[in-house]
Amino acid sequence: MNRMRKNIFIIFTIVLIIFCMIILSGYEKAWMAGALEPSCEIFDSEEEYLASCEEDFDFRADFSISQLKPKKENNSLKEYKFRRNRRFAVSDILALTGKAVKDFPLKPTKPDLKRSALPKKREPVKTLPAPKTISQTLAKKEIVLQTAFGNVIKKDEVNKLIVKGDLVGGQYYDNITIEIYDLNGVLINTIRPKTNSGYGPNIMLGDFAGNGLKQIFLGINSGGSGGFGYFYVFDAQNNEIKTLFDYQEFSQNNRYTGEYIDNYKVKVTKKGSKDSYIIDLSLRPKDYLDLIWKPDGKLIAPISVDISDVNTVFPYYNSATGVYELIVYQRVTGLFNADSLGYVITQQRLENGKFVTFYDGLMVFAQ
User: Which residues of the chain have pLDDT under 70?
Assistant: First the structure.
């Protein structure tokens, strides 16, 4: 047993010695090839190199002229490699090679580089320009988005209307305008809405006033999952631009409040009015009801309901009156944004140059 252990120990020792010899042999070859040498400094000219050689160089003790042979030659570009062990001055190197300073075998890396008598000073590192802002990076490009035709100024003249916008990115546009041209293609007026940025701007020409002229309905999507937008109706009669409908003014004049009340219901009330609507949520899932009401139907705590400003506006043709009218939606949400309870709906018609409400109500979703 002891003899076997002794044999195993001898074999292990021999293998270890062979392994160490292989590593040392590879290290020596790598060192001889220069792989373990420190990285070299690159100069633009011979003069710059010679000027930097005021300090001594450390070459190998067995330095010889044969070591000055080029490592690689490619057309006029020659690269020389030196080993560093013993200290030699530049004059010693030149004496060994038998060459004068002007014949020293170094060539500039740039063929067209002009030589100077004095060593070239190093230039400071150039700093990069400051990065551009997002607005500078996104180049705006004006694009024609839509073209429509209709008599918007006079009954007997057809006008061309062009919707334009500056493309900011994707499908988002800024500086949205509506240009009105006469029969000769001359620009005679431009409409600039107060809110002039968004997605998918689109116009529709329809007779809202019943006077034989076309008024201009403009819709711009705000983006996002809520389906909100910006909406206007413009009148250009006699080349005078008037805003007949403004979504912001409508929102200010049609405010609603909402709250959860006992017995699994929601109450929605219009501000400045006694009109109110009741939404019955008793058929909602039990886990939803338990968040708001106790088992006996009493509120756990007061919770408000949100009724948004204008969500979207649809123009439609009323065949009974022969004119176009508007239907406006305002969204009712409960505990969170995705908890849609319904919409407050308002229908308006144009009377005496002003849109007035002739019907409003509450639309609820099936449970």
Answer: 1-2, 24, 26-140
Q: Which residues contact 323 (CB under 8 A, 6 or more apart)?
A: 207, 208, 209, 210, 317, 349, 350
Kindly state the DSSP code that residue 299 receives in the 8-state scheme.
B
Match 């639309």 to its residue by tokens: 363
Q: Whole-angstrom Cα distance, residue 71 to residue 68? A: 9
Can you read off the two tokens belonging to residue 175?
Answer: 């500086």
Question: d(Cα 228, Cα 247) in Å, to the nearest integer?
Answer: 11
Phi, psi (deg, nearest 5) at residue 250: -60, -45
> Quick one: pLDDT at residue 23?
74
Contact 228, 212 (CB under 8 A): no
In order of 133, 146, 162, the CA distances from 170 in angstroms are: 18, 17, 21
Rounded Cα gap, residues 116 and 48, in angstroms: 9
- Rounded distance, CA 313 to CA 346, Å? 10
Distances (CA, A) of 195 to 4, 94, 199, 221, 255: 94, 80, 12, 11, 21
Task: Please state, as a whole number, how many other Cβ atoms lie within 10 Å of the Cβ of residue 154.
Answer: 15
Tell me the three-class secondary structure of 224-266, residue by residue: CCCCCEEEEEEECHHHCCEEEEEHHHHHHHCCEEEEEECCCEE
Supply the pLDDT for residue 46.
61
Its sign, for the CA torsion 315, 316, 322, 325, is: negative
Residue of 108, 124, 118 whose CA lies nearest to 42? 108
Decide if 260 contacts 309 (C-beta within 8 A).
no
Per the CB < 8 A criterion, the answer to whether 132 and 160 are in contact is no
Q: Do 285 and 328 meet the contact criterion of CB atoms below 8 Å apart?
A: no
What does the pLDDT read at residue 169?
Answer: 87
DSSP state, residue 25: H
**CA neighbor of 65 nearest in space, from 94, 87, 40, 36:** 94
Q: How far apart are CA 74 and CA 177, in angstroms?
A: 63
Instruction: Give dist(CA 195, CA 219) in Å, integer.
Output: 10
Among candidate residues 366, 342, 349, 362, the one with its CA nearest the CA of residue 270:
362
